[in-house]
Amino acid sequence: MAQEAWLGIDLGTQSVRTLLVTADGTALGGGSAPLRARRDGVRHEQDPEEWWTAVCATARAALRERSAGVGGLAVCGTSGTVLLTDDAGRPVSPALMYDDGRAWAEAERLRGAGLAVQNTWGLPKALWLRRVHGPGRITHQPDLVTARLVGHPVPTDSSHALKTAYDVAADAWPDLPGSPLPLPGVVRPGTRLGEVCASAAEATGIPAGTPVVAGMTDGCAAQIASGALRAGSWNSVLGTTLVLKGASPAPVHDPTGVLYNHRAPDGSWLPGGASSVGAGVLTAAFAGADPAEMDRQAARHEPAGAIAYPLVSPGERFPFLAPGATALLLGEPASQADLWAALLQGVAFTERLCLDYLHHLGAPLDGPLTFTGGAARSPYWNQLRADVLGRPARVPEQTEPALGMAALAAHGIGGEPLPDLAERMVRVRTVLEPRPDRTARFTEPYARLIDELTNRGWLPPPVAAHARARLGLDTADS
Fold first, then answer.
1. What are phi and psi of 108, to 5 degrees?
2. With contact defined as beta carbons under 8 Å apart, do 20 and 72 qualify?
3. DSSP one-letter string for 297-313
4. Got the DSSP string for 396-407?
5. What residue ranges of the chain have pLDDT lower than 70?
6. Which of 97, 101, 233, 477 could be a cystine partner for 44, CB 3.0 to 4.6 Å?
7. If we measure between CA atoms, which residue out of 264, 274, 272, 271 comes closest to residue 238?
8. Which DSSP state fits 164?
9. Are strands 211-213 and 72-76 parallel, antiparallel or unpaired?
10. Euclidean distance between CA atoms 415 and 421, whole angstroms
11. Percentage of the chain surpassing pLDDT 70?
12. What is the pLDDT of residues 11-70, one digit of tens each?
């Protein structure tokens, strides 16, 4: 299998990325194409037809130098992104993205019926779509693409179905009394869905007959790409937003529902959560800026003159649930560089609070921590995050979720255990060590942020108290 090529496709927020790799992690080709979105307050939509157009372009780019066949492929998407399709798999609605918050009334009704769902999860959004756009089949983001690839509608994977209230422990949909919503069939990630059909081969350049296997969410894909599949290992994915995912032999219980547990293809558990804080704030606040130059200037502001909680969109999902939360900035930045520094540090503070919350829940944290996602391309931000967290972190050569999907395709077709396969494909580029003097600099602003989040009623006092008790500790300490 080492010489066989595997294709991973990542349907991200801002772009589609496709990667062709061998089973030892050698990149043979890749491609990226931008995606447009419509944002307006809590509204966040994309045109699902653009996903397919971008997949066609990126697959052709990735396969430009490849003359032989492809062993298989898998597709990941943003967790909680849904649309409605007709019986033939054609879109009959726009796609509501992972953080679209318009389905709050549907979510309230579902919670009243005993289902632990958040306003931005797939099930309430699917009900909202049916109310606004009429009948249709609930379809998760990758399902549209995999259906186009194989030429017919496909079952969804349990990873994407999780936020549509699928019970991954029981492998069953919950009882939804009175709901007219037709629910899709569900399979485990790595399950073979079919083969690339002739029309899709012509459109994408992917050889006809290439096996297509069920994928996972982008957060799980990035976790596979980090090699963090052994118990106690964690991956922090920093892209438009921040996602933390780890590995555990048993699910991590969270009575608030902020933390959720995906099921790995081998039946073990992948606990984690997705924040609305992330690098998307830099794009919004500094359009056209040179990130490397801004990083260089920001290094002179440690700590920054202001403290930020840099939400990309209204509402927070992890490490606390606060639908009414808004971005905040405490203090007045002295310059644009100081503001950039405050945003970088604010994301790192949120990352630390996520780890403190995981510790509060009893999640295993004693394994390695890996940074992936688009922001992991910033050496300065990586070191800053390690300093704020007070613990070492690894950065792989390839930080994209598409690598995780290539590994999942190899697992689904070849049957090799996914942790072994992922560790062989992942090549660690850098190991970052925290600098104790820098860690100490950030203790006071982190504590101030905890106090502000608590005073606003967003962060529960027991969680705040636990985070304060861990000030100055390595976030892996028990």
1. -60, -45
2. no
3. HHTT-SS-SSEEE-BSS
4. ES---HHHHHHH
5. 1-3, 67, 177-180, 477-478
6. 97
7. 274
8. G
9. parallel
10. 10
11. 98
12. 998 999 999 999 888 999 999 999 999 999 899 999 999 999 999 999 999 999 875 789
